[in-house]
Design brief:
Blueprint: H1 2-28, H2 64-76, E1 97-98, H3 99-105, E2 114-116, H4 126-132, H5 138-144, H6 161-165, H7 170-175, H8 183-189, H9 204-217, H10 223-227, H11 235-246, E3 252-254, E4 257-259, E5 265-267
Parallel strand pairs: 2-3
Antiparallel strand pairs: 1-4, 4-5
Organism: Micractinium conductrix
Protein name: Transcription factor
Pfam families: Myb_DNA-binding
Length: about 270
C-alpha cells in the first residue's frame, strides 16, 4: 500500500514539473509581429453633405425678425406672423419668451386677455362671508378670530385633537382652524365647510368662474381667498390651474411668467 502511495506521489510530481516546463517554454517563445488593425472604409464624399452658412452660400443672412418669422412658419405650418423687435435670445433653442411674443409667434390673438400684476385684491366671496359669518375685511376678521400678532410659525397647541386624529399634516390641521381669522390660509387647503372638494379635470363652469374672478379682482397670489370664489376648489388647485392651463391658454397675461417654445409657463418673478 505504501509503495502504491509513493508511486502516485512521484507521478504527480513529474506531471507538475512537466506543466511548469511547458509554461516557461511558452513565455520564452518569440512573438510574431502584431496584427494590423482593420480600418473601416471611409464613407464616400457624396454621403457627407457639407453644411454651409448663408454667407458661405452667397445668400443674405436673415435679420432677427425674419429668423423668428421663419421659425414661426415651422411651428404653426402656415404664414408666419410679423415679429419685428424680437430679441436674438428668443431665437436660441429653449429660450424663454415673453407671453405676448409667444402668443404672437403662435398666431393667437390675446387682445381680450386679462392683464395682471400678479396680485389678488379681493376678499372672501360675499356669499361665503354671509354663510359663515366671516367679517367683510381682513382686519375685522383677524380680530374676530382672536387677534394677536401674525406669525408664519404654526401654533401646534391650537390644533384640535380631532384634526390630529385624521392624520393631517400640522399645516393642514392648523389651517382648518382659520376659517374666520385667516381665511386665506383656510381656503388654500380646504373647501367651505360641508362642501366636497372636486378632483380631476375642471369643468367649463369652473373655468369661466376662474377667469371672471381674475378679471374682477386680479390674480396671482392669495390663492386661498381666490379659491373661495370657486366652490369645491382649494387654493393650491387654483394655483396649479393658473400655471398649467390659464396662462398657456392666453387668458391672462402675467408678466412674472414666460413661456418655453413647448408651451410651458415658467415663473421668473
Amino acid at each position: 500500500m505504501l509503495r502504491q502511495l509513493g508511486v502516485a506521489e512521484a507521478a504527480g510530481g513529474l506531471a507538475a514539473a512537466a506543466a511548469e516546463q511547458r509554461q516557461q517554454q511558452q513565455q520564452q517563445a518569440p512573438r510574431g509581429p502584431p496584427r494590423p488593425r482593420e480600418r473601416r472604409p471611409a464613407l464616400p464624399a457624396a454621403a457627407l453633405a457639407a453644411r454651409k452658412s448663408k454667407r458661405q452660400r452667397g445668400e443674405r443672412p436673415l435679420a432677427v425678425e425674419e429668423a423668428v418669422a421663419e421659425a414661426a412658419a415651422e411651428l404653426i405650418g402656415g404664414d408666419a406672423p410679423d415679429l419685428a423687435g424680437a430679441s436674438e435670445k428668443d431665437l436660441e433653442h429653449g429660450a424663454l419668451l415673453d407671453l405676448e411674443a409667444y402668443f404672437q409667434l403662435m398666431g393667437q390673438d390675446v387682445s381680450g386677455a386679462v392683464h395682471t400684476d400678479g396680485r389678488f385684491r379681493g376678499w372672501v366671496s360675499p356669499a361665503v362671508c354671509e354663510r359663515y359669518d366671516i367679517p367683510p375685511d381682513p382686519a375685522a376678521a383677524w380680530e374676530a378670530g382672536g387677534g394677536g400678532n401674525f406669525s408664519f410659525k404654526i401654533d401646534k397647541t391650537a390644533i384640535p385633537a380631532a384634526q390630529r386624529a385624521r392624520g393631517w399634516s400640522d399645516a393642514r390641521a392648523f389651517s382648518h382652524t382659520q376659517l374666520v381669522k385667516n381665511p386665506n390660509a383656510y381656503f388654500y387647503r380646504h373647501v367651505a365647510p360641508h362642501e366636497q372638494q372636486a378632483q380631476g379635470e375642471w369643468i367649463e363652469e369652473e373655468h369661466q368662474a376662474f377667469v371672471e374672478t381674475a378679471r374682477a379682482h386680479g390674480v396671482g397670489d392669495k390663492w386661498g381667498l381666490f379659491a373661495s370664489h370657486l366652490p369645491q376648489r382649494v387654493g393650491y388647485q387654483c394655483s396649479a390651474y393658473y400655471r398649467d392651463v390659464v396662462i398657456p391658454s392666453g387668458l391672462v397675461i402675467d408678466r412674472r411668467f414666460k413661456m418655453t417654445r413647448a408651451g410651458k409657463a415658467v415663473y421668473v418673478g
